[in-house]
Amino acid sequence: MSEAALPPLSQAPTAPLRVAGHFGELMQGRLGVGGPLALISLPCPVLSVSVGGRDAGLLGPRRVQALCAALGLAVPGVLPALSASMPPGGGAGSSTAALVALARWLGFNGPPEALARACVQAEGASDPLMLPRPERLLFAPREGRVIEALPPLPRFEVLGGFLGEGQRTRAEDQDFPDIADLVARWRLGPDLPTMAALAAESAARTLALRGPAGDPTAALADTLGAAGWMIAHTGSARGLIFAPGQVPPGAEDSLRAAGFSQILRFTGGGA
């Protein structure tokens, strides 16, 4: 049976279980020409995959079997329903969050690094959602490993949403710009203006290489006085970065007028 033909999952869990997603990346690209693909995730507490509710068809049998094999778990006869609050292909981590939720539902409580590697074996890529403080990690998503720890970030606020068609991650896709110079500056411990500028530069390089053309996020950041902006480097998530409490009145309406959907706000960074 193909993954697309998998029947809806059923059976409610014995306890609520929720795995937070992320909202694209503060930075993503290659570490030098021919270097590994690396990213700095932007955790998003307001988006998640939950066990229970209306099943979203997030996982098919191949990925379930691969995950269980990688973690040494028995494939259960009945699986839980998994529901997502983020759109498919949005770049908000729904696939990884679903795998993490399933692993935890099945009782896995081993090292998060092992879970990251298992997610890669299941679908060829992973977001670092299972790791603590992923915004402080330079992470290799096609390998499921932490490249290095990074300094803490200043407190900031994000206003964003989803723009245009979703885009699924393909494991073989490594056509991203070189960001080694940006990572070198990030390692120094950026203040908010520097962090926001580096995130915007990473986003701009990816849009220039991969499209789509005419993305309005940079112009919105200028118009609304944001410190910078960011994107899901594969996906439709787009966000403006502000100092805490500095989102201007009516900013949500500006995003809606530009075609954004599912407008959201959340904070990040801090000790």
Q: What does this entry look like structurally?
A:
The protein is built from seven helices and nine strands; from the N terminus they run ββαβααβββαααββαβ. By secondary structure, the chain is of the alpha+beta class. It has a four-stranded antiparallel sheet. Strands 1-2-3 form a three-stranded antiparallel sheet. A hairpin with a 5-residue loop joins strand 7 and strand 8. Helix 1 (61-71) packs antiparallel against helix 3. It is globular.
Q: Would you count the extended β strands for me?
A: 9
Q: Which of globular, elongated, flat, extended, rod-shaped describes the shape? A: globular
Strand order of the largest sheet: 7-8-6-9
Q: Helix tally? A: 7
Low-confidence stretches: 1-14
Q: Which percent band covers the strand fraction?
A: 15-25%
Helix/strand class: alpha+beta
The separation of the N and C termini measures 47 Å
Helical percentage: 25-40%
Sketch the major β-sheet.
4 strands, antiparallel
What's the order of the H and E elements? EEHEHHEEEHHHEEHE
Radius of gyration: 18 Å
Mean pLDDT across residues: 93
Write the layout of secondary structure elements.
Layout: E1 18-30, E2 37-51, H1 61-71, E3 82-84, H2 94-105, H3 112-123, E4 137-140, E5 145-149, E6 156-162, H4 180-186, H5 192-210, H6 217-224, E7 228-231, E8 237-242, H7 251-257, E9 261-268
Antiparallel strand pairs: 1-2, 2-3, 4-5, 6-8, 6-9, 7-8
